[in-house]
Amino acid sequence: MSIQVEDYFARDTFQKMKAFADKQETPFVLIDTQMISQAYDDLRAGFEFAKVYYAVKANPAVEIIDLLKEKGSSFDIASIYELDKVMGRGVSADRISYGNTIKKSKDIRYFFEKGVRLFATDSEADLRNIAKAAPGSKVYVRILTEGSTTADWPLSRKFGCQTDMAMDLLILARDLGLVPYGISFHVGSQQRDISVWDAAIAKVKVIFERLKEEDGIEPEADQHGWRLPGQLHHPYQQPGNLCRRNHPLPQGRLR
After folding, report:
1. Which of 109-118, 171-180, 223-232 has the lowest mean pLDDT?
2. Which of 13, 42, 118, 242 is the most buried (most CB within 10 A)?
3. Can you list the positions of beta strands (E) in 56-188?
4. CB-based contact 93:114 (threshold 8 Å)
5. CATH architecture of 31-243
6. 29 near 63, Cβ under 8 Å?
């Protein structure tokens, strides 16, 4: 399959990038912040009821952090080093999620002391650590999903737990004095099959309904690990196409 410049950039933009690149030593990474800005706007337009969290581990460049901060983005953090960098750029703690499900108690406490109140988990041990180090915080549980055969970089089963365990963890979270806030999932990077999101969201719907009916728990958010595919080697559906599909969750529950 041949790759055409016009599939990715306007011709004049490509010429400017090429002129700049010709003067640099290799290897290096050249990033067009206008493309990042447009991608963010497209995502917000497609999911107008959602709160967008930028995964800092994707690229922690301060130029990107500053750009997204000014556009109103929130940030998903995986380490104390990312936290310090993001907060050092003026991002407030209420716009930060600690999205790493494998973390030390001292790191949980560090985030809590910095004001972060939203934590990911997928195990009882980690949940109990959160309850001790970050009392009263909101927690969301990451679940396993399918889609490993249709993603360029499968992550759907790298972290997370089964549906029944996710329910048990949210119930335990309530009993430990935490706020059972929601469910998250990751369908894999460069996921080519749009139906994989449907299947994952359907799982979330079942969890929400059972928690409400059986335990009186009503989670507030479905936090998707979207990682919506970019135009790399294959054409992909855009965010608007995905959001227009029948979505089983009420508006306002997406993060």
Report:
1. 223-232
2. 118
3. 74-77, 96-98, 118-121, 138-142, 151-153, 179-186
4. yes
5. Alpha-Beta Barrel (3.20)
6. no
C-beta separation of 50 from 69 below 8 A: no
Number of residues that make up the chain = 255
Distance from first CA to last CA of the chain, Å, rounded? 35
* Chain centroid, CA 246 distance in Å: 21
Structure-model confidence comparison of residues 127 and 230, the more confident one = 127
Identify the three-state secondary structure at position 97.
strand
Q: Report whether 189 contacts 152 (CB < 8 A).
A: yes
What pTM did the predictor assign? 0.83
Tens-place pLDDT, residues 30-39: 888 988 999 8
DSSP SS3 for 82 = helix
Which residues of the chain form beta strands (DSSP E)?
53-55, 74-77, 96-98, 118-121, 138-142, 151-153, 179-186, 189-191, 221-225
Distances (CA, A) of 223 to 17, 92, 249: 35, 20, 11
Q: Residue ranges of the domains in the chain? A: 31-243
Phi and psi torsions of 223, nearest 5°: -95, 105
Could you give the C-alpha distances from 158 to 79, 87, 155, 227, 255, in angstroms and in order? 18, 28, 5, 15, 21
